[in-house]
Amino acid sequence: MREAMFYEKMAEGKVRCGLCRFRCLIGDGSRGICGVRENRSGTLYTLVYGKAVAEHVDPIEKKPLFHFMPGSQSFSIATVGCNFRCLHCQNYSISQPDEGQILRISGSDLPPELIVERALEAGCRSIAYTYTEPTIFFEYAYDTAVLAHKAGLKNVFVTNGYITAEALAHIRPYLDAANIDLKGFSDRFYREVVHAMLTEVLDSIVEYKRAGIWIELTTLIIPGWNDSDEDLGGIARFIAEQVGVDTPWHVSQFYPTFKLIDRPRTPVATLRRARQIGLDAGLRYVYEGNVPGEGGENTFCPGCGELVIHRVGYAISDNSLQRGSCPHCAARLAGVWD
Fold it and tell me: 125 lies in a domain?
């Protein structure tokens, strides 16, 4: 255990957590929504510091980040816990407690120093805080990110976008990129499928952009829930108007899982429609995810339209960019290429 950051002591032994946008009021002996921050006699503790439940070496494209050091490897870690309750969570076994149960704190001892050491040994160029929600293991991620930065490694969040502005500002000097899930574009979707608030996610995305962190957005398209032209058009316009047309948008295929097994896989035609909606809104980089071999993962120059990065799944078969510029017309593509 370690004392948590970002909380305020309240009356009657309660504490107010200020790490994520739920800002939980937690009574003595209770935990926040995330299941991994506990009030013990008026002091808030993180229960997962140094407790990695997953560690892997992944291609950065798996995050997915297509415009951030493409072709590089990222040392990826997670702890148990999450502040969302997505019905379609792919990692529910480590992110969510069973019905009516308290989340079991599991994981192997993996201190920040060892994470950095293993990342360097594996030839990784970044550390990704992923699989579950990195915000809820903030102290662990923060200490690791500081050490990684000193060692010349980049740091990446794969996140649901519910961090508070003050917590984001604290890690900003060490956070280089983030893929943020924009899961839908209706209050009903976020309330019933995710158990969160859309407006908070939108505000958070804008905060990331203002902070100068490289961001890419992902929408998992679920038939019947967030696949209408209205929803997809709303997302595309929000990105174009509030985040910027150079922000990559990944529209990904859903497959039935966890508590959302009554919906079919997303048709490829739906992904194509979503991509076109994004392009029509002025977005320069829209990608189709979870359908390797369909061609929707390639990067084209927004200046001349020529193919500059060819991908199959998470692998790059050809990258003709020259220091981030198109070899055909010399147009500069948005991203972090070095």
Answer: no
**Is 67 inside a domain boundary?**
no
In a domain, 99, yes or no: no
Alpha-carbon distances, residue 322 vs 28, 77, 333 (angstroms): 57, 31, 10
Residue 332 per-residue DSSP state? B
Q: How confident is the chain (338 residues) per 10-residue block, as mean pLDDT?
A: 97 98 98 97 98 98 98 98 97 88 93 98 98 98 98 98 98 98 98 98 98 98 98 98 98 97 96 98 97 91 97 94 97 95
Q: CA–CA separation, 231 vs 55, rounded Å?
A: 35
Instruction: Let me know whether 241 and 327 are in one domain.
Output: no
How much is the pLDDT for 101? 82
Same domain, 304 and 286: no
Q: What is the pLDDT of residue 130?
A: 98
Is residue 4 within 8 Å of residue 139, measured between CB atoms?
yes
In terms of residue numbers, what domain contains 338? Answer: 298-338
> Would you mind telling me the total number of residues written for the chain in this entry?
338
Spatial distance between the Cα atoms of 92 and 87, rounded to a whole number of angstroms: 9
Judge residue 12's burial from the number of C-beta atoms within 10 Å of its C-beta, 0-12 exposed, 13-18 middle, 19 or more buried. exposed
- 186 and 275 both lie in a single domain: yes
Partnered with residue 75 across adjacent β-strands are: 57, 127
Number of domains observed in the structure of the chain: 3
Q: Do 280 and 318 have their domain in common? A: no
